Amino acid sequence: MSLVLEKVASGYGRLAVLHGVDLEVPRGEIVSVVGANGAGKSTLAQTISGLLTTTAGTITLDGTPVHRLRPERRARLGLVHVPEGRRLFGGLTVAENVGMGRHAARGRRGDPDVVEHLLDAFPRLRERWGQRAGLLSGGEQQMVALARAAASRPRYLLLDEPSLGLSPRLSSEVFRLVAMIAEETGAGVVLVEQRVDAALRLATTGHVIEHGRIVVSGDAEELRTSEMIRKAYLGV
Amino acid sequence: MDAVVSGIVLAGLYALVGQGLVLTFVTTRTLNFASGELLAVGGFLALGVGSWSWLPTPGKLAVVVLVGGALGAVVHRWLVLPFARGEHDSRWLLSTVGISYVLLNLFTNGEGANPQRVELTRNPGTVEVLGVGVNKQSLVIAVIAVVVTLALVAASRWTSGGVIMRAVAEDPRTVALMGISPRLVGAVAYAAATALAALAGVLWASEVGATPGLGVHVLVSAFAVAVIGGLTSFWGPLVGAVVFGVVVQVSAYELGALWGQVAGLALVIVVLVLRPEGLVGRRMEAKL
């Protein structure tokens, strides 16, 4: 069972950004997509979740074609997207934000719910449970976004720059929780990140995206340690 | 004092229709400018179902409200959705104003312009409120407006539908990522708004008779009331209606009938200049 992209193209209106992306994400595995700013990472995440229209190619979820479905239908199938910048509902409480995530799990009650475990692992969210999400710190907001995603009982989880704007310490906390969600739900994870090293450490497979194309794919550990790739594509 | 009390009581009708405007604005950032004619639809439907002697009055009311709601969903699907494809698309304004004229003319051709007596929910006579004689029907409408407002405020705070609505108001794209169709939320809001307009139509037509133009002035005032109070809060129309009603009635009383409406609309402009979000409205939440 896996999430498969074949020759996927998309963009904004007439501006094409992705040019034939192939990607396979097996359940239970973390796949990182790394690349520079403007390489098409967010576009990729938004195309998979349906916020952007797939203009060519196919996306299948455990064999079901989903690239023509609206984003809400894809979410109901377990394709859960944590968008860039978290996009919490700032006027809603933490509890209400997490409750919003639960709607996507309707009809999939059999899938594991790890919200409680997540709250045990990051107890501060419990203290903030009745507070408006907009008043929380960046790190806490990212945790709420993860809890909201967990409440959707993901089969596949798309994470767009979860470490954005966070301190290195908080980022590693976020990555730790992502690994926990992946392990406990058995979800396949697509991790789109600029923090190349951390993202590749977490993943089993890594892909480098450049100008809307996947240019290098391989074992995450090999990519991470390859001097040539770091210099040529990642500028680190 | 007379003018103040009658102003407050008359405002109920505007508040009721204004709630509908808030409902659709909050969820879709659009307004149904055919609400006035849908109010007239309510009036004529009341006329139609009035002759069904086998159905008790609550049943007749339910029929009117449900048909009104269904029409709202139709308006949303065919006249709003295709013409509100983004922040900068305001063609919905033309399409809803357009259908309002079409309906107005259809009714005038079919029913004539003379008022027809509606018996459903008629409450003739007056009652005394604070020593002022108040039209009974207006008082009923005002009470219903308050009840509807309280119900909407409570629902938006404590029901999951209310949470969804507040979330859609902030960020419909992200709501879709939660497995909820923002289009469906919009359709429900339109249905509820139109059901309210139809209900207002029945109540108002029972007072003044059903005419094709029943809702024209009501919509203008309801819009004024919603803007004064704030299009982003369910308290808005009620607060706006009281302020608007009092200003209109007092001006009319002191300066003459013509000046009443003028003062009311001048108030809209003053509010828009000094406090564009309305008296109790919130500025749009900053996106996170």
TrEMBL record, chain A:
<keyword id="KW-0067">ATP-binding</keyword>
<comment type="similarity">
    <text>Belongs to the ABC transporter superfamily.</text>
</comment>
<dbReference type="InterPro" id="IPR052156">
    <property type="entry name" value="BCAA_Transport_ATP-bd_LivF"/>
</dbReference>
<keyword id="KW-0547">Nucleotide-binding</keyword>
<keyword id="KW-0813">Transport</keyword>
<dbReference type="InterPro" id="IPR003593">
    <property type="entry name" value="AAA+_ATPase"/>
</dbReference>
<dbReference type="GO" id="GO:0015658">
    <property type="term" value="F:branched-chain amino acid transmembrane transporter activity"/>
</dbReference>
<protein>
    <submittedName>
        <fullName>ABC transporter ATP-binding protein</fullName>
    </submittedName>
</protein>
<dbReference type="InterPro" id="IPR003439">
    <property type="entry name" value="ABC_transporter-like_ATP-bd"/>
</dbReference>
<dbReference type="GO" id="GO:0005524">
    <property type="term" value="F:ATP binding"/>
</dbReference>
<dbReference type="InterPro" id="IPR027417">
    <property type="entry name" value="P-loop_NTPase"/>
</dbReference>
<feature type="domain" description="ABC transporter">
    <location>
        <begin position="3"/>
        <end position="236"/>
    </location>
</feature>
<dbReference type="GO" id="GO:0016887">
    <property type="term" value="F:ATP hydrolysis activity"/>
</dbReference>
<dbReference type="InterPro" id="IPR017871">
    <property type="entry name" value="ABC_transporter-like_CS"/>
</dbReference>
<dbReference type="GO" id="GO:0015807">
    <property type="term" value="P:L-amino acid transport"/>
</dbReference>
<dbReference type="Pfam" id="PF00005">
    <property type="entry name" value="ABC_tran"/>
</dbReference>
<keyword id="KW-0029">Amino-acid transport</keyword>
From TrEMBL, chain B:
<keyword id="KW-0812">Transmembrane</keyword>
<keyword id="KW-0029">Amino-acid transport</keyword>
<dbReference type="GO" id="GO:0022857">
    <property type="term" value="F:transmembrane transporter activity"/>
</dbReference>
<dbReference type="InterPro" id="IPR052157">
    <property type="entry name" value="BCAA_transport_permease"/>
</dbReference>
<feature type="transmembrane region" description="Helical">
    <location>
        <begin position="61"/>
        <end position="80"/>
    </location>
</feature>
<keyword id="KW-0472">Membrane</keyword>
<feature type="transmembrane region" description="Helical">
    <location>
        <begin position="6"/>
        <end position="26"/>
    </location>
</feature>
<feature type="transmembrane region" description="Helical">
    <location>
        <begin position="180"/>
        <end position="204"/>
    </location>
</feature>
<dbReference type="GO" id="GO:0005886">
    <property type="term" value="C:plasma membrane"/>
</dbReference>
<protein>
    <submittedName>
        <fullName>Branched-chain amino acid ABC transporter permease</fullName>
    </submittedName>
</protein>
<feature type="transmembrane region" description="Helical">
    <location>
        <begin position="38"/>
        <end position="55"/>
    </location>
</feature>
<keyword id="KW-0813">Transport</keyword>
<keyword id="KW-1133">Transmembrane helix</keyword>
<feature type="transmembrane region" description="Helical">
    <location>
        <begin position="210"/>
        <end position="228"/>
    </location>
</feature>
<comment type="similarity">
    <text>Belongs to the binding-protein-dependent transport system permease family. LivHM subfamily.</text>
</comment>
<dbReference type="Pfam" id="PF02653">
    <property type="entry name" value="BPD_transp_2"/>
</dbReference>
<keyword id="KW-1003">Cell membrane</keyword>
<dbReference type="InterPro" id="IPR001851">
    <property type="entry name" value="ABC_transp_permease"/>
</dbReference>
<feature type="transmembrane region" description="Helical">
    <location>
        <begin position="258"/>
        <end position="274"/>
    </location>
</feature>
<dbReference type="GO" id="GO:0006865">
    <property type="term" value="P:amino acid transport"/>
</dbReference>
<feature type="transmembrane region" description="Helical">
    <location>
        <begin position="139"/>
        <end position="159"/>
    </location>
</feature>
